[in-house]
Each structure stands twice: as structure tokens, then as C-alpha cells.
Design brief:
The strands form three sheets. The chain has a ten-stranded antiparallel β-sheet with strand order 3-2-1-10-9-8-7-6-5-4. Strands 11-13-12-14 form a four-stranded mixed β-sheet, sandwiched between helices. The chain is of the alpha+beta class and about 550 residues long. The chain has two domains: about 220 residues, no CATH class; about 240 residues, no CATH class. It is globular, with a radius of gyration of 25 Å.
Length: about 550
């Protein structure tokens, strides 16, 4: 199956398996002597990679924004769609949805017979198919390879080839360009589309990237797809941009490996019987609530929804600490922050744990805006808005992955949200961010302005949508006084994700300088241009 716009949902998940890093074969360690040798090595490695990925079940997220013309900005979002699921490659390309609990009535895009009356619908499996060049004959019999040049993608030097199907290769073959790293000759990027559009199928253009996650292993990580003038039916056309991300390849195994590699040193036993005391009822309740928090966070981390504690969490903790110190807040147990890996814009509290989505951290324009969101969630903590203590019983966490969003929920009532917003204003007015709240107001105003066009992006799956604090929205800064002011960043503007171990890092980029109005693109989908690096044990094991 090679359709970029078609797929099948609803296949039962197979179990996750541990996979050892690929050891290069003897012939792979010898440099290719001719371009024909290179092509042979590329073909061998690509077909090996197709078999290799069948051992994994990563999470797959696809976010699509429909586009419409705009006189000032060129194009702007005109609707959106969101999908999160787990891939199952054991028997082909299939997905189990975590977000769509009603798959009945789904139709494969372009598969209805009456060409003049059918309606188009995006199928997530079609976007997942774009991580493969060709699963049914990637060889010299079906393809012609033309060398173009050498080119660096980040730190990885690549050989670039144009790839075209042979005359009798058939429909659905890849047509485009590939980038091959020049040490082991693995394909690390391919850009183009599948040939042979017709009334029953449409193939989208895409740009697909892979990441070197282990020695000799390059796994699919990002796919960008776009169409601006694809006509179907009568007087209808597709105009969209889409991002697909994959992560969680090593789910559950990283912690096991770390535990087994720790050196345990025995220390003398200390007698605490003289100072030990039973917990009071209040202390016992706090301990129980913390246990419930830990249970939920651990569960989410194990299934790939929450990132391991790392660099981004420390940044959030620092901002929360600034709010606590300047407002003389002292709560027990201490407030901590974690990051939900999804692109949706949401924030919520799990007891005393504040959770912000990666997508929300991505689009926030500055620290004051980040502090505003955290102040609102800190308000919930200070006001004692509790979570369901039933999560203290571990069996309440043992649900199938596909039931996660239906089983767990941390949304607050409108009354609780209003009270938390009032507390947030109080905290911010006493904080180091009090003179920068105009920018935060501009962000919240932009969010409310776009809510009709991008409802799936700003709708929370586990908590409430991002709060729009009225007092801050009305005090938004005037962008006319500073044309370079940015209300919100595009999706993916701040955080990068390691698809193997789910670690998050802040993107280190150069200042942009002058930004044209059309380049601001708040909350919008943009192409991927990751900085590729080769895997090193030192980088993988560096402390967070």
C-alpha cells in the first residue's frame, strides 16, 4: 500500500518489544568505491529499514490546517484536524487512535464512486505512509537514480539523488529526491510524492525526515505535507499544510536500562526510631494525593504522553519559583512542572503538578506569557483544587492506551477556572513579570481571535483549553508601536523532541532580525528543517 491520502484505522495493538541497536554488517563498514556500489548499499539499507521498523510501535501525531487566502498575510488557517494514535507496523501500516473513539462511518479519501458528489476526508494512515519511500519494490528494476550533489543536513554530510520510477514500474511509486548519509548510506530525508493521481486516489507532496537514534538506526521522525491547489469533485480544491511527528520508539525500556546500570552503594543503617512519627491525618492525605499524582505522571510517561523530566521542566520550575518567592507562597508538597508531548495547546494541574503541553510551550512568545499560564495553574494549586484521589489505587491506571483520553480527565469547572484566573492576576502583579504583561495579553488576544479557525489545536484533551484571562486580554500591547512584536510563534518554535527516548530540549537558534508581517504566522503549521546529527553515546547520556 502506497497511498499518501488513504489508510486504515482501528487495528488492535501488538505488544512492544525490545530491540538491540543494529550492528553494521562487514560489507557496510567498507566505503563504496563507485556510485553503483552506493546505490546498491542504499537499496539494501532501505529495504532493511522497512523490516526493522516493524519491531516498533511509536506514537504518531498528525495535525492538519486548512488554508484560505488573506490579503495581508498571504494565507491563514481556515480549519484544522488532529489525530493522535499508536502505529502498528507488524502487518503493514496501521494505527490505533487515542483521540477518536468513534471510527464508524470513516471513508478512505477519494474512494467513493460518484465523482461529482463525494466529500473528501483525511485519513491519518495516509500521512503515516509517508515515512516509507516504497514498501513494494524499492530497487533498480523499479527506479532510476541520478546523482545530484553533496550537501550537509545539519552536521550530516549527504549524497543527493533524484529518484524516478521506470516506465513499467506502475502507479503509486515515489517520485522525488533522497538524501543519503555518506558513512553507512542510509536515507535520512526524502522529498516528493507518489505518482499516479486519479479519480479514486490522490497522492500528496511530502518532505520526510529520519533521526539517528542508535548506532546504525535511522528512524522516521517528521513528515511535512502540503497542497495548495488540488482540485476534486466540482469546484472544490484542497489547500492545507500538515505535520506528522513520531516518538516513543523506546517506550518503557529506557528506565529499565537506567535502573540496571546504576551502581548501588550500601551505607550504614541509621536508626531513626527516636525521631520517627506516624503521619497526622492531614499529612497522610497529602501523601496519598502525591501518590496519586506520581501514579498518573508515571503512567503517562510510560505510554509516551509525558516527557521524562529534563531541561524544559527546569525552565518551567524556575518561572514557578519566581512566582512563589515574590508572592510568599509555600505549599506542601512542593509544586513541580511536567510537559505533555502533544502539539495541542493545553495546561492543567494533576494535584500539585502543573502540566503544560509541548505545543503550548512552543507558541508562547516570551517568558512573561509563560509565567501567565503557569500563574493560572498555580492558582488552582493554592486554592486547593484537588484531583481525583482514586488514582492513588494503582489498578485505576491500568487501562488500554486507546481509552486514555476517555478514562483520564483533569478539566476544572468554570467557577474554579475563574477563581484561578483571579489568583493569577494577583500573583503576576507581585511578580518580576508585572511590567511585561502587555505581551501576554497580546498572546491571549491572538489565541481568542484564532479559536474558530483552529479549534482542534486549542481544545484540551486532558484538561481545559488555554485560559483567556480577561484583565490581561484587555491590556494587550499595541503591536503598531512595535512592528516586530510577535503575538505567538508557529508550531514547533521552541522545543525539539528526541523520538527515541522522548527527551525534550529547547531549540537553540540564531536571532531572526527583521520579521515581515507575513512571516509571523502565529499558531501555524510550517515545514520541518531539523538539524541532523549522528548518534553518539555521550550526547545520548548527557544529564538533563
Amino acid at each position: 500500500m502506497r497511498r499518501a491520502a488513504a489508510g486504515v484505522c482501528g487495528v488492535v495493538l501488538s505488544g512492544l518489544g525490545t530491540v538491540a541497536a543494529a550492528t553494521p554488517r562487514p560489507e557496510d563498514q567498507t566505503p563504496a568505491r563507485t556510485m553503483a556500489d552506493v546505490i546498491d548499499r542504499v537499496i539494501t539499507n532501505e529495504n532493511r529499514a522497512i523490516q526493522q521498523i516493524r519491531q516498533y510501535s511509536p506514537l504518531v501525531e498528525t495535525y492538519i490546517q486548512d488554508q484560505k487566502p488573506d490579503k495581508e498575510l498571504g494565507t491563514v488557517p481556515a480549519g484544522d484536524k488532529y489525530f493522535l494514535g499508536r502505529a502498528d507496523f507488524s502487518k503493514g501500516v496501521s494505527l490505533v487512535s487515542l483521540t477518536d473513539t468513534n471510527s464508524k462511518g470513516k471513508k478512505i479519501f477519494g474512494a467513493i464512486g460518484n465523482f461529482f458528489s463525494f466529500s473528501a476526508e483525511f485519513i491519518p494512515g495516509g500521512f503515516l505512509q509517508m515515512i516509507f519511500i516504497d514498501t513494494n519494490g524499492f530497487d533498480k528494476q523499479h527506479y532510476k537514480f541520478d546523482y545530484v550533489r553533496r550537501e550537509f543536513l545539519g552536521e550530516v554530510r549527504c549524497l543527493v539523488f533524484d529518484v524516478t520510477p521506470t516506465e513499467k514500474a506502475g502507479k503509486g511509486r515515489f517520485l522525488g529526491r533522497i538524501w543519503v548519509e555518506d558513512q553507512d548510506y542510509n536515507i535520512v530525508r526524502f522529498n516528493g510524492g507518489y505518482s499516479g493521481n486519479g479519480h479514486s486516489s490522490w497522492y500528496f507532496h511530502f518532505d520526510s525526515w529520519r533521526t539517528n537514534v542508535q548506532p546504525g538506526i535511522w528512524l522516521p521522525s517528521f513528515v511535512y505535507s502540503q497542497e495548495s491547489d488540488m482540485h476534486y469533485a466540482v469546484s472544490k480544491k484542497l489547500d492545507f499544510r500538515a505535520q506528522t511527528r513520531l516518538w516513543g520508539y523506546n517506550l518503557g525500556h529506557a528506565n529499565q536500562e537506567q535502573e540496571l546500570s546504576k551502581i548501588l552503594v550500601e551505607t550504614p543503617v541509621q536508626d531513626d526510631t527516636k525521631t520517627a512519627n506516624d503521619l497526622t491525618p492531614i499529612q497522610a492525605q497529602r501523601s496519598w494525593d502525591r501518590q496519586a499524582e506520581d501514579n498518573v505522571i508515571d503512567r503517562f510517561e510510560r505510554i509516551g504522553l509525558v516527557a521524562p523530566h529534563g531541561e524544559v521542566d527546569k525552565v518551567l520550575d524556575t518561572v514557578v519559583n519566581n512566582l512563589e518567592v515574590t508572592n510568599s507562597i509555600d505549599v506542601d508538597p512542593e509544586v513541580r512542572c511536567r510537559v505533555l508531548i502533544t502539539s495541542t495547546l493545553e495546561s492543567f494541574t494533576i494535584g500539585h503538578t502543573i502540566v503544560l503541553s509541548r505545543g503550548l510551550v512552543d507558541v508562547l512568545p516570551d517568558e512573561a506569557s509563560l509565567a501567565t499560564i503557569l500563574a493560572h495553574e498555580l492558582g488552582h494549586v493554592v486554592l486547593g483544587h484537588r484531583m481525583d484521589p482514586a488514582y492513588g489505587f494503582f489498578d485505576n491506571l491500568l487501562v488500554d492506551d486507546k481509552e486514555t483520553f476517555r478514562h483520564f480527565g483533569f478539566a476544572r469547572t468554570p467557577e474554579e477556572e475563574k477563581a484561578a484566573s483571579e489568583k493569577a492576576i494577583q500573583f503576576l502583579n507581585n511578580s518580576p513579570y508585572k511590567n511585561q504583561l502587555g505581551n501576554a495579553g497580546l498572546f491571549l488576544a491572538a489565541l481568542e481571535q484564532r479559536q474558530k479557525e483552529i479549534p482542534n489545536l486549542i481544545s484540551g484533551h486532558l484538561g481545559n483549553r488555554v485560559p483567556v484571562i480577561a484583565d490581561l486580554k484587555t491590556s494587550a500591547a499595541d503591536p503598531k508601536q512595535n512592528p516586530q512584536m510577535i503575538a505567538a510563534l508557529p508550531i514547533g518554535g521552541r522545543v525539539k523532541l528526541d523520538p527515541w527516548n522522548d527527551k525534550l530540549e529547547l531549540i537553540k537558534s540564531k536571532p531572526l532580525g527583521t520579521v515581515a508581517e507575513r512571516e509571523k504566522m502565529p499558531f501555524e503549521v510550517t515545514p520541518f528543517m531539523p538539524y541532523l546529527m549522528r548518534y553518539t553515546a555521550e550526547a545520548a547520556n548527557k544529564p538533563q
